[in-house]
Amino acid sequence: MNNPPDISQDPSEHEEYAHNVQKHVRGYLIVGALLLAFTAITVALSYVDFGARKANIAVAMLVATLKAGLVAAIFMHLAAEKRLIYRILIFTGFFVLGLFWLIFLAWYDYPVFR
Amino acid sequence: MEIPYTVSTRPDTGLWNAKVGIWLFLASEVMLFGGLFSAYIFLRLDAPPGMWPHGLLNVPVGTMNTAILILSSVTVVLAWAALKMRRYRAYWWYMLATILCGVIFLTVKLVYEWPQKFDHFGAYIKPEALGKYEQYLGNKHAAAKDLPPRLEITGHLHNRAALSDPKIKEYEVALDPLNADPTNPAMDRPHFFPLPVTDKIAKIEKEDVQRATMFLPTHSAYFASYFTITGLHGMHVLGGVLVFIYMWLPVSKKLYQRNPEHLANRVEVAGLFWHFVDLIWIFVFPLFYLL
Question: Which of A66, A101, B121, B203 is in the most buried spot, having the most CB atoms within 10 Å?
Fold first, then answer.
């Protein structure tokens, strides 16, 4: 989904533009409804026994990532953004993964209850 | 001097400046929350069996708050779209709805959820005394069902003075349903609707207790991370609400009359922050309330 274009200064084109934004509004409403539905699904799935708690966590995180992806792609317009923003986010992803990786190194270094 | 590129795009980046700014800020926010979430993972993986509590938070209330945040994310993006279409009235109403959602979220957290926790009591029993309290813990039942061991007795503390007065030798606790009826299979898993405290009273001797506190950050690694992360998240909600109030007040209408696209861009940037706060909550909710 692309973002609405900037508004035209030409009043004759304005109506067409408003119509264009209106189409995006419909998309935002659909995404909002999807997010609410996924929330209900997350809650419902947490009461289903997938055999191990680890499996339940994996399922819940999968749904949460899907929801987060919807928010980022549509509400935060990341589905169609300029290259500089993606570059910033690639660096962010790299460093945040590094942060989690450090924690795992520390965890393996400190065996207590495993 | 005019601040450049508030509306027009910079030729080299293809963006107006505030957009680059907010994304750099959000990148730093990812690192801030990333640090806390990795601490959460670390603490949880290292929690000994039975030491990571489940079912202590109010799931329906948490679900409602999640829905409110999602709703506010929709209204803020609609507010922005209304500005893009130059419909100020609609913008004004959507913004008001967003602000109200944020205020409701914070009120539920600070007036209902947190105080309810501060009013709840838990006592971790020493390993050697667990057998003495088997009637409240049901560890034989738990072991037979392959459930994690139960080390804590929770409920409503009748003699609060016992927390600070060393002369009082025991805690009098009105038990939570799990501890009141621990071998009931219905208690094996947390319920969606939290069950009220029962009128069954247990006396727990202080010398059998490893540690006993109200549900404060000192209670456990679980509540410490819960209060830290939801507290920081709540401060973000508060910050967002304050910014939205500024954009909703008449002072911003003046900007709208002068340069509507500038206000639209401000709303977009504040909206990006708001969606990020929503995004954090999308992970906080299952991690603390459900799993």
Answer: B121
Which stretches does DSSP call E strand in A1-114? none
> A-B interface: how many C-beta pairs under 8 angstroms?
134
**More reliable by pLDDT, A11 or B38:** B38
Distance separating alpha carbons of residues B199 and B265, to the nearest angstrom = 57
d(CA A7, CA B261): 8
CB B282 within 8 Å of CB A66: no
Structural domains in chain B, CATH included, are 17-118+220-290 (1.20.120.80), 121-214 (no CATH)
pLDDT, residue B146, reads 86
Terminal-residue alpha carbon distance, chain A: 47
Q: Do A95 and B38 touch (CB under 8 A)?
A: no
Q: How far apart are CA B70 and CA B58, in angstroms?
A: 19
Does the CB of A26 have a partner CB in chain B at under 8 Å? no
Residues for chain B: how many in total?
291
| DSSP letter (8 states) at residue B227 | H
Q: Which residue has the higher pLDDT, A5 or A107?
A: A107
Instruction: Parse chain A into domains and list their residue ranges.
Output: 1-81, 82-114
Q: Is the pLDDT of residue A111 over 90?
A: no
Distance CA B147, CA B190 (A): 12
Taking an 8 Å cut-off on Cβ atoms, the answer to whether B23 and A17 are in contact is no
Q: Is the pLDDT of residue B176 over 70?
A: yes
* DSSP label of B50: T
How close A28 comes to chain B (CA, Å)?
A: 7
What is the amino acid identity at position B259?
N
**Tell me, what's the pLDDT at B186?**
87
pLDDT digits (tens, 9 = 90+) for B231-287: 999 999 999 999 999 999 999 999 999 999 999 999 999 999 999 999 999 999 999
Identify the residue whose tokens are 């506010």.
B72
Residue A107: predicted pLDDT: 73
Question: Is B282–A68 a contact, with Cβ atoms under 8 angstroms apart?
Answer: yes
Contact A43 B272 (CB under 8 A): no
Q: Note which residues in 104-163 of chain B have CB less than 8 A from chain A.
A: none
Amino acid at B128: E
Task: For residue B76, count other CB atoms closer than 10 A to its CB.
Answer: 31
